[in-house]
Specification:
The chain has about 140 residues and is mainly β. The strands form two sheets. Strands 1-8-3-6-5 form a five-stranded antiparallel beta sheet, with no helix packed on it. Strand 5 and strand 6 form a beta hairpin. The chain is globular and about 40 Å long. The two termini are about 20 Å apart.
Length: about 140
Amino acid sequence: SRAVTINDSGDHQLATVMVIRGCTTTGDPWDITATGAKVVASTTASAPAATTTVSNTLVVSVVSRADDSSSTLSFGTPTNSVLTSFTDRGEGGTTSGNGGGFVITSGVKQIPGDTGVTSFATAPNTTNAAITIAFKP
């Protein structure tokens, strides 16, 4: 095991550790990444699509929220019709400083190609930043 240290950024800082098993152990464990941001507050949110190049990637998406809530049920049910075994992995939030939080989802992209957008039809009325990472098997 390794100790994880997260330095104080001054504000909007919340962390979690997620372990991904079964990834390649040589080179980079990810196939692709994609990032996005929503700069005008609204009650929907999404994580960007990306195009995988290898079969059976585990696609993990994280979407942040900039509201002052420690609720773990801020985002509604996620959808992504392209991924199999699609799962909401959970949420975290804080009222510390100016607050904030995140939600994590995952699914499998069996055939290389477009991962599809992960969407939340209901979300906190905030701005968002998001990342999608496809891990190599």
